[in-house]
Write the structure tokens for this entry.
Amino acid sequence: MAKENKTQYAILGMLSIAPMSGYDIRATIKKSTANFWAESDGQLYPALAMLTKQGLVVCAAAKDCGARGKKLYCLTQQGRQALQTWLELPPENQSIRNELLLKLFFGANLSSSMNQERLALYRYQLKIQLNDLLMTQQDLQRRFPDSTHLPYWLMSLRYGIRLTEAKLAWCETEIEHLKRLEQ
Amino acid sequence: MAKENKTQYAILGMLSIAPMSGYDIRATIKKSTANFWAESDGQLYPALAMLTKQGLVVCAAAKDCGARGKKLYCLTQQGRQALQTWLELPPENQSIRNELLLKLFFGANLSSSMNQERLALYRYQLKIQLNDLLMTQQDLQRRFPDSTHLPYWLMSLRYGIRLTEAKLAWCETEIEHLKRLEQ
DNA sequence: TCGCACATGTAACGCGTTACATGATTAC
DNA sequence: GTAATCATGTAACGCGTTACATGTGCGA
């Protein structure tokens, strides 16, 4: 009835790259997939516990967990299989909800300058985002030059870069549009 | 604690354009904001009922509702004020979850051809989307040449067009990338 | 010794989707 | 008459966010 939990697959995918702790997964997601995938703590840890119970991941013995009680998780054969099965399915497209766009769609209810300010703020945020993405790109290429994952990581990064550039260009032209409209 | 219900504002916004029934709102959302905002039936009608109870919208008397029991809703002064207040707040950005991108991020677990097929299918879907957007653009300009809303509707449309074009261009280059990688 | 980053979790809350349910009107 | 579209709702379900709770180890 309701949608299937995708958090588990994000976790399995991350563990297919390397064994990690919950904290590592969280950090990796924030660093590398933040542009197209987010997870919240409240999902991550329960999902890890469930995957363990289902035998899709195993937690290294407490001994090997290093300091600070870090729990290192590994994919099991079943886990790898479950990931594979999911990866091969066609991706479902989530419903989109972009509040900025919705507010602009109703922009006739606001002053033109209000809308311009909104766009200008967005442009500013996009510039920062773009910069981050470009830095991450360099960073990845330097740190994992030989990883089999690198081409795919760069692919998803370029998606972010392209989209952010397109949004920026859109912002510029729309601000100009509004300025001209005022006169 | 949890997030505020945004459906109500989408409804108020739609009613700021013209009085509408629930069915009309639904149809309008599907036609015009589908690219950045979606609503499901299960949210729409209860939200309308709640807005009525709160006095933010009123339902025209049953008499005036036309055939088929259609209920025509109008904004009240309070409703207009509530919309205004919300519009002026900075937009919150929803967390993004793009399953296609996540699957590509883990693409090293699949064959190169599988990833290529995935991208090719996406490219096909994007072309259709782009076409729809361009048609809608013409349609809007023809049907509402003098509406104060038109500039903002076109703005949100151009966002969709720009983004879709960027995604398409990205698709093309990535398919080429993968082809070259295979050799 | 004080604060920050590391590290793992739980509970409340309600949003949003899906599926179900129902009936009228129009067009062929 | 019968299918499609118009039209309005309800109920189940669980996903995902936010806030809370707790403790460790390292560096300044």
